[in-house]
Design brief:
This protein has 161 residues and is α+β, with helices and mostly antiparallel strands. The chain is 34% helix and 27% strand.
């Protein structure tokens, strides 16, 4: 084992390590630290006017593009059950009264008569509403104003479109 180490140590003596590279001339001149001239993190205190102008142009282009997009209008499909007082209620007149409710954001759809029992039919009518403009409370108040025809009104289905 000692012979092996002797062989290695003689090999190292024959090829010594190369000396370290000489220090930069600026540091050797005594002008201060060379690290002051180079910022590793890129925190540049100087504002680049051209980069700032490019940034402002891109922000303006993005804002213009975004403003051209149409605003998404939330709509809902509502199915209403309108129940009359009795079997003698004129259902055609009831439907005319319900459809007479007109407001911005309300579109009436199809309707049909569905049997409730004992010869009484209810009016099942659909409508599409814009959520910001028309609500179910508004519809219920307006429909139940026709007291001669309407006993009650229920929301059978409420689906977002």
């Amino acid at each position: 084992l000692q012979e092996c180490w002797k062989g290695r140590s003689s090999c190292c003596r024959q090829n010594p390590r190369p000396p370290p590279p000489p220090a930069p001339a600026a540091a050797a001149a005594g002008g201060g630290d060379a690290d002051d001239d180079f910022d590793l993190f890129g925190s540049d205190d100087e504002v680049d006017a051209e980069a700032e102008k490019l940034k402002q142009e891109r922000l303006a282009a993005y804002a213009a593009k975004k403003s051209k997009k149409p605003v998404l209008i939330a709509k809902s499909n509502i199915i209403l059950d309108v129940k009359p007082w009795d079997d003698e209620t004129d259902m055609k007149e009831l439907e005319k009264c319900v459809r007479s409710i007109q407001t911005d954001g309300l579109v009436w759809g199809t309707s049909k008569l569905a049997p409730v029992g004992y010869g009484i039919n209810k009016l099942v009518i659909t409508c599409v509403v814009e959520d910001d403009k028309v609500g179910t409370d508004f519809l219920e108040e307006e429909i139940t104003k026709f007291e001669d025809f309407v006993q009650s009104m229920d929301v059978a289905a409420f689906n977002k479109v």
